[in-house]
Specification:
- The structure is a single chain.
- The chain has about 260 residues and is an alpha/beta fold.
- The protein has one domain (about 25-255): Vaccinia Virus protein VP39 (Rossmann fold), CATH 3.40.50.
- It has helices at about 25-50, 55-65, 65-70, 85-90, 110-115, 155-165, 180-205, 205-220, 225-230; strands at about 75-80, 100-105, 125, 140-145, 165-175, 235-245, 250-255.
- Strands 3-2-1-4-5-7-6 form a 7-stranded mixed sheet, with helices on both faces.
- Helix 2 (about 55-65) crosses helix 4.
- The longest helix has 26 residues, at about 25-50.
- It is globular, with a radius of gyration of 17 Å.
Length: about 260
């Protein structure tokens, strides 16, 4: 696991801003509408545009928290769970009779697909706002998120809310996209900023949604900055494990 030097987070953009949106409330509503619109083709496009690597990344992220997941009484929250693929990867490591996992998302359409895909799974699917979680302080031992955290309207406030609902010693795990640096970043940028939006727009019929995708990654803090924000939020042992040429990676931290 790599741990780049931590940078101050003062220059980081506050959060997701779809094109034309200036306020946090408007940005959150726009992002929710966007994900409702692409829900029918979301899974297909995830697998296609990641060349099938998304499944491997979910499994790898889940196994990083095997020590918590194998405890029957551990309380798990999968934030911005979408159609439930990381939730399912976490669930595979839970013992029989364990406490259910909570999968939370603000998109009704995405949650409906999660419920259909994993009907009967030991998961409590919940519609909710990641910026204002409907849980008491210290409610969870692990909070995860896969490719959803960068869609929050305010990253610092999102981290603070995760910190609030974690119990002391609880862990955070955020699997998120990243823009690689150098020559590999240039090559990846051609695919991610030009080819991917074109393919995604054609297949989904929602070109604006797949223009937003690379924009959101470019806007998201780089690993050093994100680690700084986690530290500012009160997390300890903050680290980042880069996947596939650092095009994605897992952020980890512990609530002291």
């Amino acid at each position: 696991m790599s741990q780049p030097g931590i940078e101050k987070s003062v220059a980081v953009n506050p959060g997701a801003r779809p094109r034309g949106e200036t306020s946090e409330a408007a940005a959150a509503e726009s992002v929710r509408d966007l994900f409702d619109s692409i829900a029918p083709r979301y899974d297909l496009l995830n697998h296609l545009l990641s060349m099938g690597l998304d499944r491997r990344w979910w499994r790898r992220a889940a196994h990083a928290f095997r020590g918590i997941l194998t405890r029957p009484g551990a309380r798990i929250l999968d934030l911005c769970c979408g159609t439930g693929d990381l939730t399912a990867a976490l669930l595979r490591l839970r013992p029989h009779g364990a406490e259910p996992i909570t999968g939370l998302d603000f998109s009704t359409a995405m949650l409906d697909r999660a419920r259909r895909k994993f009907r009967g799974a030991n998961v409590v699917w919940t519609r909710g706002d990641a910026m204002h979680l409907p849980y008491a302080d210290g409610s969870f031992d692990l909070v995860t998120s896969a490719f959803g955290f960068r869609n929050l309207a305010n990253y610092a406030d999102g981290l603070a809310e995760i910190h609030r609902v974690l119990a002391p010693g609880g862990q955070i795990g955020i699997l998120e996209a990243n823009q690689p640096d150098g020559l590999r970043g240039w090559g990846y940028g051609i695919y991610f900023q030009h080819l991917l939006p074109m393919l995604g727009g054609v297949i989904s019929g929602q070109p604006a949604a797949y223009r937003y995708l690379p924009d959101s990654v470019m806007r998201f803090p780089r690993p050093q900055q994100m680690l700084g924000m986690m530290h500012d939020a009160g997390f300890e042992q903050c680290a980042w494990d880069g996947y596939l040429l650092r095009a994605a990676g897992l952020y980890r931290g512990v609530k002291g």
